[in-house]
Specification:
By secondary structure, this protein is of the alpha+beta class. The protein contains 10 helices and 6 strands.
Amino acid sequence: MLISMTGYGSGTAANESTTVTAEIRSVNNRYYEFSVRLPKHLQNRELDLKELIRPRVRRGKVNLNVAVDRAAIEAAPARINEEAARDYHAMLISLRDALGLEGGITLDTLMKFPDVFAVDEQEAISDEEWTLVTDAVTAAVDNMLSMKEKEGRELSDDLAQRAGVMSAGIDAIEKLAAGRADLERERLVERLQAVMADERIDRERLELEIVLLADKMDITEELVRFRSHTKFFLENLDSGESEGRKLSFLLQEMNREANTISSKSYDAEIAHIVVSIKEELERIREQIQNIE
């Protein structure tokens, strides 16, 4: 079963005092890459969340966003930073005197400094809240994987259809190439009859070279290998694992065989079919880049 690298999922977990919301996105990437955005009091648990997700995502650039909402139930754990307020007050008075200004330093002025109010977000997270976080993240990952699997099934159907188009092309090439090696050898013999009339030429050697040349134009092996790669390709589409790298390797081999068929055939009709096959290979290559 193929799994797409592109997906999105969200999850929520809550109790009487806290609501945790998790959102996760995955996009194409050659390797596994993880980034996360957390509230300050959860930032020391980043590695735990990474390890929670890693076994379930093989490849892709994954971004996780976790939000914890306590505001609706309880007051925010804010406190006044008196030391910072006194420092700002002293600095403002000093500045006022230095510039020869008038007027007092009001509370409104001090409140404009963000350091005057401190929110204690570095408090240790409780076991109950951590459970909510992991539940929300797990639900988000479940939803994301469901989307990735659904897209993977659609990709698999599309790839199987394109593999069928390529197999039909190989069948057509095989029909065109049937007996072609013998035909090419006969043509070469006819063209060289005049040359062979020259007694100085080693006729046995020349006939041998003609046979070897005709064999080099035989594309039977390439056709067999292309079919074999296509067979393994289709088997991997139906296997229980998503093997994007293996499919990519098989695609490279099929492309190599198609190039060889084109270069050895010396036939315009076969070359035209090969172009169609390579167009399908390119479309498949683009699709495979989105598979884990």
